[in-house]
Amino acid sequence: MTHARPRGLYLVTPDDPDSARLRARVAPLLPFATWLQYRNKAADERLRAEQATLLQGLCADAGVPLIVNDDPRLAADVGAAGVHVGAGDAAVEAARALLGPGAIVGVSCYDEPARARDAAARGASYVAFGAMFPSPTKPGARRATPALLREARGLGLPVVAIGGITPENAAVPIAAGADLLAVIGGVFDAPDPVAAARALRACFRPSR
């Protein structure tokens, strides 16, 4: 089955222990998001299940695919569209076996072209690179370059840029070939998150 290449804002949730507050923060942003990733590194298993279920309901209503960070089993349990895995997480093949052939399975490739090539060979749905800029979420993260995004376009998969992205610097990864911008703080920590999400979406021009 052929799918249109996704473009736009790939919104990633902050670590918020209050599920009602998380819902209130996310809901007004979904009209500007292409995908939403549920990520909460500080939550225990119970809270993660509660929040993923809540967000899946919001995403279903908004028509936005939900992708769960790190946890293919949780993604399957809540009926999410897919999972995002990094180093040390489930293998692409295992995630796809659990979630099905139509699932979105993304892979963090950091600053490693070889990891991206391997992910593509194993059936990944997209490859993600970063941090593109200094990131308050991961202050010590390795840095990826625009040249790496340009190189990754040759894999034939959607390319995601992540790390320190804001409306002010988003043009750099987009010009280098990023299809999606994965953003946490650049939206959720902005003075006006809705305005930031709208501005990031507006950075994309229709594909030619």
TL;DR of this structure?
The protein is an alpha/beta fold. The protein contains 9 helices and 8 strands.
Description:
With 208 residues, the protein is an alpha/beta fold. It has a single domain (8-202), classed as Aldolase class I (TIM Barrel). It contains nine helices and eight strands. The chain has an eight-stranded parallel beta barrel, surrounded by six helices. Helix 3 runs parallel beside helix 4 (92-99).
Write the layout of secondary structure elements.
Layout: E1 8-12, H1 19-26, E2 33-38, H2 45-62, E3 66-69, H3 72-78, E4 82-85, H4 92-99, E5 104-110, H5 113-121, E6 126-129, H6 146-152, E7 159-162, H7 171-175, E8 180-183, H8 185-188, H9 193-202
Parallel strand pairs: 1-2, 1-8, 2-3, 3-4, 4-5, 5-6, 6-7, 7-8
Helix pairs in contact: 1-2, 3-4
Number of domains: 1
Distance between the termini: 22 Å
Mean pLDDT: 94
Query: Strand sequence of the main sheet, in spatial order?
Result: 1-2-3-4-5-6-7-8
Radius of gyration: 16 Å
According to DSSP, the number of beta strands is 8
Backbone shape: globular
CATH superfamily: Aldolase class I
Percentage of helical residues?
25-40%
CATH topology: TIM Barrel
Structural class: alpha/beta
Elements, N to C (H/E): EHEHEHEHEHEHEHEHH
CATH second-level architecture: Alpha-Beta Barrel
CATH class category label: Alpha Beta
Main pleated-sheet profile: 8 strands, parallel, barrel
Q: How much β-strand is present in the residues?
A: 15-25%
| Residue windows where pLDDT falls under 50 for at least 5 positions | none
Number of helices: 9
